[in-house]
Amino acid sequence: MRPFPLFSSLRLLLIGLHLVSAALQAGLLFPLAGSAVRQRLKRAWSRRLLALLGIRIEAAGGGLDRIENGLLVCNHVSFIDIFVLNTLLPSGFVAKSDIAQWPLIGWLSRRNDTVFIERGSRKAAHDTRRHMQVALDAGTRLVVFPEGTTTAGDRLLPFHAALFQSAIDAAVPLYALALSYHGADGLRSAAPAYIDDISLLACLTTVLEARGLTARVALAASFAPPLADRRHLAHRAHQAVAAALAHAERRATSP
Asked: 147: domain range?
């Protein structure tokens, strides 16, 4: 690995300390706090982390402030997506079970209203859907990344329809969000992309070197209950997110 500038090394140290602080808050304060306090804590330390990473947030198009509860589906670029969305809409997340083993971030996830997806069997899929429905029935705002993996932000993968069933069963609204990252020049940036074999440290390093990043979040579509069947719902949500991402791309490249 090439030598890393002292200033960036110090920022990485501050990020590590901030994650430790957030983990302590999640472990010590979350069990004692009500929902409103937990949301404020999530928003505060997510906003602080993005500030340390040099990422500003833009809520494009309006409508996000009217989302109170329900299932949110969003395209997926990076683990940073979680902190972007928590800054705007503090939520619980549906995540792959291996994330629970990550240092610090796994600790945070396990204590942050996360529903973990166990893969490999029909029973695991049923359990995931049941846990999601329980969370939604309790009024938790829940986020899922229905592509099932991350991309560089240059394409939108098909949405897994099974992840939409819990919103139908719980009879809650569903919101489709489009998330994109842009450099200081306004063009789409792949710097935050957590793909292939890139390590967590390498991803953070790339973000710190990018400078002037903006995370742009737009409400692409909303669906009120009673909801359509899950395949139709997934298709409509996918179309809406694809259109919103294309709009963000045109906006970035227009003179």
From this structure: 6-253
Residue 172, number of CB atoms within 10 A of its CB: 23
Element (H, E) at 166: helix 165-170
The 3-class SS string of 27-41 reads HHCHHHCCHHHHHHH
Contacts of 224 (CB under 8 A, 6+ apart): 173
| b/e sequence 177-194, b meaning 16+ C-beta within 10 Å | bbbbbbbeeeebbbbbbb
In degrees, to the nearest 5, what angle opens at C-alpha 71 toward C-alphas 36 and 161?
Answer: 160
Average pLDDT value over all residues in the chain: 87
Tell me whether residue 247 is in a domain: yes
Q: Is residue 75 part of a domain?
A: yes
Domain total of the chain: 1
- Indicate whether 1 belongs to any domain: no
The 10s digit of each residue's pLDDT in 6-54 is 566 788 888 888 777 777 777 777 777 777 888 888 899 899 999 999 9
We report the CATH number of the domain holding residue 201 as: 3.40.1130
Sorted by sequence, the CB contacts under 8 Å of residue 17 that are 6+ apart come out as none
Closest by Cα among 218, 176, 157, 210 to 74: 176
pTM of the entire predicted model: 0.89
